[in-house]
Amino acid sequence: MKITFSDGILTAFVQGEIDHHSAVGIRTEIDRRIQKDKPDILRLDYSNVTFMDSSGIGLIMGRYKLMSAYSGQIEVVNVPLNMARVVRLSGIEKLGKITVKES
Amino acid sequence: MNAINTMKLEIESRSVNESFSRVAVASFVSQLDPTIEELGDIKTAVSEAVTNSIVHGYKESKGKIYITASIFEDGKVQIKIRDKGCGIENITQAMEPLFTTSGGERAGLGFAVMESFMDKVKVSSKVGKGTTVVLEKKINGRFAKRW
């Protein structure tokens, strides 16, 4: 997974499938970078996500909690249209610090 | 109505099998010529049910998950996902959106996703015996869409 850090923004380009199995490795990698770089904003880029179930929401919620502990914000961008339904269903956009852009 | 085709799958409750099981069911359903969206809905719902069996049904232990998929004449697909895990004490509560017993990394949306993506979701469970989830969806398919 490509992760970049500039101007206080940590961007994680999540790739492939997000399920309960794959989420473990993804969150470990992202959390390590959050703790190292202490970003103001964590941006999760979902443009290369090919499948996600509710674990993709759990991944956002867990990072939201961690970022809140650092007084940081979270953004989720480029959620593919066929996966945006899970996002909408979760109501996670109401958390305020989350912006979902459908690609 | 009788099923015109059926397949059965027995897998171990290992999280690596989540992806295998949803792809296997989607592959079986493909004979109905579903749309990409219909196939995505089925994959997502199966993934949720199988993950529930792994995470909640068997918790720290390992066991078998039994998946049966059937296709009916009218294009209906029925998928049964059964485990012999710990069972659910309160099904109504378990099916409430955002309810979870697993803390911060699980969204508590498994059943909400199943209900939203499938036409019908039936859950039966006995504490100490296991849980069965029955998912149903009518596949209209690409062929039907042309008319």
Describe the overall structure:
Chain A has helices spanning 20-37, 55-69, 81-90; strands spanning 2-6, 9-18, 41-52, 73-79, 100-102. Chain A is built from three helices and five strands; from the N terminus they run E-E-H-E-H-E-H-E. The model of chain A has no long low-confidence stretch (mean pLDDT 90). Chain A has one domain (2-102): STAS domain (Transcription Regulator spoIIAA, 2-Layer Sandwich), CATH 3.30.750.24. By secondary structure, chain B is α+β, with helices and mostly antiparallel strands. Chain B has one domain: 2-Layer Sandwich (Heat Shock Protein 90), CATH 3.30.565. Helix content of chain B is 36%, strand content 29%. Chain B has five helices and five strands, in the order E-H-H-E-E-H-H-E-E-H. Chain B has helices at 17-29, 36-57, 91-95, 110-117, 141-145, and strands spanning 3-12, 64-72, 76-83, 120-126, 130-138. Chain B has a five-stranded antiparallel β-sheet with strand order 1-2-3-5-4, with helices on one face. In chain B, strand 2 and strand 3 (76-83) form a beta hairpin.
CATH superfamily of chain B: Histidine kinase-like ATPase, C-terminal domain
Domains counted in the coordinates of chain B: how many? 1
- Helicity range of the residues of chain A? 40-55%
**Strand order in the largest sheet of chain A:** 1-2-3-4-5
**DSSP summary: helix tally of chain A:** 3
Distance between the termini of chain A: 20 Å
In percent, how much strand structure appears in the residues of chain B? 25-35%
Short description:
The complex is a heterodimer of chains A (103) and B (147). By secondary structure, chain A is of the alpha/beta class.
Write the layout of secondary structure elements.
The complex is a heterodimer of chains A (103) and B (147).
Chain A: E1 2-6, E2 9-18, H1 20-37, E3 41-52, H2 55-69, E4 73-79, H3 81-90, E5 100-102
Parallel strand pairs in A: 2-3, 3-4, 4-5
Antiparallel strand pairs in A: 1-2
Helix pairs in contact in A: 1-2
Chain B: E1 3-12, H1 17-29, H2 36-57, E2 64-72, E3 76-83, H3 91-95, H4 110-117, E4 120-126, E5 130-138, H5 141-145
Antiparallel strand pairs in B: 1-2, 2-3, 3-5, 4-5
Helix pairs in contact in B: 1-2, 2-4
